[in-house]
Specification:
Helices cover 18% and strands 37% of the residues. The protein has 656 residues and is of the alpha+beta class.
């Protein structure tokens, strides 16, 4: 079945760029795979051309039919696609539009037959009398697996209408739930909209059991408290369940994620001894609370779910590698046997399942394998490969990723991942410290196209989970990487010093590369100590916290902004742009002009401040792209430019 993968390749040759930049800059060929309820066909979300996305339907005998293609000429792409019936698919389109002169994200849901016919928009149409634009097109809340119909439960944001000149204008507003037929588009109300509603959770069988609301403050902003209520089986009344208080990136209180109908419980996360743990709470009126899993070293942070009803089968957490604790012993045995059979690919996850769960879509991968999809027939115990995720890397020797810890200046051991060039003895190499984005995030073991590219070009790469990273509990996260920036940047700089002390690199061959908050760290680490890194590359970095405050005010109160980036007294010392004169190393910046996460003005300000301070800087702007720079040609160019920039800046010999 994998034979068709080569036809999906989207890398165009570029003679002036290194072969490795082309190979690693290519986007994932296969982005997602969904299996039909009858287990007979697969829907594959693929990359199309340089920056487009497409949908193909593949029968299990290998016949492939292209269904949809969005070439990327406009900032619109397929975000996901899943089956609503044996013959019908539901997809989400994501696009970027102009909203009062600023770019804004917009989603719309569509339905299409497996042969490409009968394409219809599922999202409620924007009315001519609507008071404002509806940017959110809804989501599938429940696939109604117990029915043999073409209906689903959908979330919908209701917009009130102008009332001038009519008595029929609707005043309904807020988030609600509708039953929508994906063929006829017939709609009926299931949960009426509430202006304060932010979330609904069903039991996977068509019944809304949990609802979250968030009060609107007199200032016009939303409260930082999410109030959850639940219904008993067969009940109509909403009863109190929990309250989750948000403090910047951190939360306290039971945060429900799923409902198990058969056990009549809600699964969710809450704090225990400073770390996230998984609990379940009975929904029978007793609210009996039971600890499911906790660890003394890391947060428990993900549920493992499969099937049309999205049933909870386990829980996941990341130590040196991501691990799964299964509740379902059969799935535990199954994934264990797959990992054993496919030696060297310990990352095994169930991506999707047929209605009877006899056929599963499996993803496997490792640090040395970008990943590949398989379809498993549990009845015959046969597994067939669907496609590798990155066929351009077939035959390319990848670098092993080793979990390590290094000592920070205050003696704290900081976890990190070290990637050395394949075949290297790990001595006297040019090296890159690559801090992750977020800052409420962490790096994990596995394939990383950025670090693997640099390793292929001869660099050692160290990815630190500095203090301010998530996943290690409240104490490690501190006040996040903005408010506790000196601690976070100290750990980042100490990562570079460790590379030198271990003989892996030398002080004149150290560089730093980061994306998003990682780009902020790449710049701000040199504000703390200008002498550690000899070259800085930052992709879509935050550089000016005062400007970030202004951007956040569109959707966050002053208190919420302060919880994330602190008070005005901190912004100057914590902003790279305000301290550009301290940065000695040459800087290379990249940014998409439609970035919704970090406005391109952040890089433009940084470049101007560096030039004004006499620094050496280049800013590369990419038109029509957002935060991810999801374009194979652009990523190829970016990788090649960073490599050449680092070699020039550190006096390294050129490579073909």
């Amino acid at each position: 079945m994998a034979a068709f993968a080569a036809s999906l390749s989207c890398v165009a040759p570029a003679a002036a760029q290194s072969l490795q930049a082309q190979q690693f800059g290519a986007r994932e060929t296969v982005r997602d795979v969904s299996i039909s309820p009858d287990g007979q066909r697969l829907a594959m979300l693929i990359s199309s051309g340089k920056r487009g996305t497409g949908l193909v339907v593949v029968s299990l005998d290998g016949q492939m039919k292209p269904i949809l293609n969005y070439p990327g000429e406009q900032p619109v792409r397929l975000a996901n696609c899943s089956w609503s019936t044996f013959e019908r698919l539901v997809c989400t389109l994501y696009g970027i539009v102009s909203n009062e002169g600023k770019p804004a994200g917009m989603t719309r849901m569509i339905a299409v037959n497996a042969d490409g016919s009968n394409l219809k928009e599922l999202s409620a149409r924007q009315g001519t009398r609507d008071l404002y634009e509806r940017f959110y097109g809804g989501d599938i809340l429940d696939w109604l697996p117990d029915e043999r119909s073409s209906a689903v439960l959908m979330l919908r944001h209701f917009v009130p209408e102008h009332g001038t000149g009519t008595l029929l204008a609707s005043s309904r507003e807020g988030l609600g739930v509708e039953r929508v037929d994906t063929v006829t588009l017939k709609r009926s109300m299931v949960e009426p909209p509430r202006p304060t509603a932010t979330e609904f959770i069903t039991d996977g069988h068509g019944t809304a059991r949990v609802m979250a609301t968030r009060a609107r403050l007199s200032s016009g902003y939303s409260s930082n408290e999410r109030v959850y209520k639940y219904r008993r089986p067969g009940g109509k009344e909403w009863e109190p369940l929990s309250t989750v208080v948000e403090n910047g990136y951190a939360t306290t209180g039971f945060d429900p994620w799923a409902v198990d109908r058969d056990l009549n419980v809600a699964y969710g996360f809450d704090n225990l001894d400073g770390r996230k743990a998984l609990y379940k709470i009975s929904l029978d009126g007793s609210l009996k609370r039971e600890l499911v899993l906790a660890r003394p070293d890391v947060d428990i942070d993900r549920l493992v779910r499969i099937g049309r009803q999205r049933r909870v089968v386990g829980v996941s957490y990341a130590t040196e590698q991501r691990l799964v604790s299964f509740f379902d012993p059969r799935l535990k045995a199954l994934t264990g046997s797959i990992a054993k059979a496919l030696a060297g690919t310990p990352v095994v996850s169930v991506q999707d399942a047929s209605l009877d769960e006899n056929k599963l879509v499996i993803f496997v991968g490792s640090d040395l394998d970008p990943g590949r999809y398989y379809v498993l027939d549990r009845a015959t115990k046969k597994m067939a490969e669907i496609s590798p995720v990155r066929p351009e890397l077939a035959g390319v020797k990848l670098a092993a990723v080793k979990p390590i810890s290094y000592k920070a200046a205050d003696g704290t051991m900081v976890p990190a991942y070290l990637t050395l060039p394949p075949g290297s003895d790990g001595r006297n190499l040019p090296a890159i410290v690559m801090p992750h984005g977020g800052p409420a995030a962490r790096d994990e073991w596995g394939f990383d196209w950025l670090s693997q590219f640099f390793a292929a070009r001869g660099y050692a790469v160290l990815q630190p989970n500095y203090r301010g990273s998530s996943g290690y509990g409240e104490k490690w996260f501190r006040d996040n990487g903005f408010r506790s920036w000196k601690l976070a940047m100290g750990d980042v700089n100490d990562a570079g010093r460790w590379l030198v002390s271990e003989g892996i690199s030398s002080a004149d061959k150290l560089a730093i590369v980061g994306w998003s908050y990682g780009g902020y760290a790449a710049l701000q680490s040199s504000v703390l100590d200008p002498n550690v890194f000899k070259a800085i590359a930052a992709v879509a970095p935050v550089t000016d916290l005062d400007a970030l405050r202004d951007e956040m005010k569109d959707y966050s109160s002053d208190g919420q902004v302060k919880d994330i980036i602190g008070s005005a007294a901190l912004w100057k010392e914590a902003s790279p742009a305000a301290n550009a004169a301290r940065i000695k190393a040459p800087v290379l910046l990249f940014h998409g002009d439609l970035d919704l996460n970090v406005a391109i003005g952040q890089s433009q300000t940084m470049a101007a401040k560096l030039r004004g301070a006499g620094g050496k800087v280049e800013l590369v702007e990419y038109k029509g792209l957002d935060h991810q720079l999801d374009d194979s040609a652009v990523r190829t160019e970016m990788l090649d430019k960073i490599d050449r920039f680092l070699r020039t800046s550190m006096g390294l010999p050129a490579m073909p």
